[in-house]
Amino acid sequence: MIAEYILSLDPLALLRAMPGTAAQGIIWGIMAVGVYITFRILDFPDLTVDGSLATGAAAAVMLIQGGMSPALSLVFALLAGMAAGLVTGLLHTGLGIPGILAGILTQVSLYSVNLGIMGKSNQGISLTQQGLVASSRYVSGDGRALFFLELIAGCLVLVAVVYCFFGTETGAAIRATGCNPQMARAQGINTDVAKVLALTLSNGLVGLCGGILAQYQGAADVNMGRGAIVIGLAAVIISEVIFGKLCAGRKMAFACTLAAVFVGAVLYYVAYALVLWLRMPSDYMKLFSALVVALFLAVPYLKDRRAAKRRS
Amino acid sequence: MGYMLEIQNIHKTFHKGTINEKKALDGVNLRLDPGDFVTIIGGNGAGKSTTLNAIAGTWFVDEGKIIIDGADITNLPEHRRAAYLGRVFQDPMTGTAATMSIEENMAIAARRGKRRGLRWGISRKEREEYKKKLGALGLGLEARISTKVGLLSGGQRQAVTLLMAALRRPKVLLLDEHTAALDPKTAAKVLEISDRIIEENQLTALMVTHNMRDAIAHGNRLIMMHEGRIIYDVSGEEKRNLKVADLMRKFEEASGGELDNDRMILG
């Protein structure tokens, strides 16, 4: 029976799935960079992203339906995401609501906002729509190589922009706020402003990702962001496990880390494709992702505790 | 000339109206001339660090006024007061950002009180200047300028924090038991660096310590606090002639009892 199962698996099918898998991974990498900014740089577990991803998608799809060029619609996807992040930031810093709760409040309210934007739970883009920035049609067509080239180049530009931003005075202030808020305030940094900025920037990237993703799938869905935070975290953690040592201590360590996040996201989707290919029920994928994230988050803690036990 | 720091009758009670209510500051008045270097001693809960935190704006005082060089800062938030202040904390971890390099930490301190925009976070010229300043510490840190601060020892971190505090000449330097977490040899070295930085930049400084000998040996003025009040204030000739025994007697007089505080190091 096992032999039968193995024989029934088609290696070519896995291979055929790879371009789409890679494209999706790269697009989700944009979102993962946003998660990296809040989770790692700001040290703020931001749950807004589950909502802001769909907000970006909804904004892009509705604008495209209304006749806007798909490329321009992404600007508004970015802005919509930024607005969501701004709200979380203000809830947290202005009203003193704990970070996780502030994110959840925004996320929940965005569900209604997203329904409001779309008028129903999902909206599609016409099959004949021209000029999409990304589309599942592109990964199988003749222009495949060019599409991937453009996608990768776009992401490298994004890495460069984020890298440069965090090298500026304002970026350094955000990094200091995430690392040691007491030190930041003692050096005259308004830590509230720094947090709001980082949350706005992060969710802007998530909204942008949502907009591109909607174009890729040809539709936006109110549920498309559910569990997005886990995918983002998985990408960040996979990248750290594999490339952490490789990036550390380099001259451009941070740029290297950001690029690695994209690779992490692609690897996550490769694992996803593998699970589907093995015909495991895809319903369990979210459970599987959560377990992987929990495991990798626990490893440093458990290592510490074991080391402490050995010392005593 | 006016005072560099003027504290007028500040009060602070923590956890007001609860079973944990604690009157931390009970009418503190203090005036510092430019260039004054004041050491503060006192037992646990005397209000030493609380006074420094009141000046730094960790929270707002319940009553009273804080004026720095003529500017009333009583209602300014902590990050805006930073323009006037340099701070070094008891815990060496507190004063620096561990995941950032020495030069990045210094560049952040160099922009204290300035608008932070989208210019690059550190310039080549600055880097050279920092190397020079680090070299003067004599700890070999000038060669490790891009090392993450988290990899430095406690003493090295305090030395860097001191440099950062003085990078933009503060109106008042606040040293909050900044050698308490260090071993005696390192503590002596950091104190020596503190003295030099204060002297070179002619800073006005407040230094909290629980080491009576250090309190006597450093600065031109000494105050003793007890139960949220200043109970003894001595400067000039009288301070120079002060002995640890005098301080102990003074402390017993004021507190009306035996010195039973094991955190107060007699020297």
Give an account of the 3D structure.
- The complex is a heterodimer of chains A (312) and B (267).
- Chain A has 312 residues and is mostly helical.
- Chain A has helices spanning 2-8, 11-42, 49-65, 70-95, 99-118, 144-165, 169-179, 181-186, 191-217, 228-247, 253-277, 285-311; strands spanning 122-124, 219-221.
- A two-stranded antiparallel sheet of chain A has the order 1-2.
- In chain A, α2 packs across α10 (228-247), α3 (49-65) runs parallel beside α5 and α10 (228-247) packs across α11 (253-277).
- Chain B has a domain at 5-98 and 170-255: 3-Layer(aba) Sandwich (Rossmann fold), CATH 3.40.50.300.
- Chain B contains nine helices and ten strands.
- Chain B is globular and about 55 Å long.
- Chain B starts with a strand and ends in a 12-residue tail after the last helix.
- The relative contact order of chain B is 0.18.
- At the A-B interface, α7 and α8 of A face α2 and α3 of B.
For the structure shown, list the relevant keywords.
heterodimer, A: 312 residues, mainly alpha, ABC transporter involved in vitamin B12 uptake, BtuC, 2 strands, B: 267 residues, Rossmann fold
Mean pLDDT of chain A: 92
With strands numbered from the N-terminus, the spatial order across the biggest sheet of chain A is: 1-2
**CATH A-level architecture of chain A:** Orthogonal Bundle
Major sheet description of chain A: 2 strands, antiparallel
The profile of the biggest β sheet of chain B is: 6 strands, mixed
Low-confidence stretches of chain B: none
CATH class of the domain at 5-98 and 170-255 in chain B: Alpha Beta
Overall spatial form of chain B: globular
Overall pLDDT confidence of chain B? 92
Report the strand count of chain A: 2
According to CATH, the fold-level topology of the domain at 5-98 and 170-255 in chain B is Rossmann fold
Which two chains form the greatest contact, residue counts included? A-B, 22 and 34 residues
Oligomer: heterodimer
Question: How many runs of DSSP E, i.e. beta strands of chain B?
Answer: 10
Helix and strand string of chain B, N-terminal first? EEEHEEHEHHHEHEHEEHH
Question: So what's the overall shape of chain A?
Answer: globular
Q: What is the CATH domain class of chain A?
A: Mainly Alpha
User: Do you know the CATH architecture of the domain at 5-98 and 170-255 in chain B?
Assistant: 3-Layer(aba) Sandwich
> Can you tell me the CATH superfamily of the domain at 5-98 and 170-255 in chain B?
P-loop containing nucleotide triphosphate hydrolases
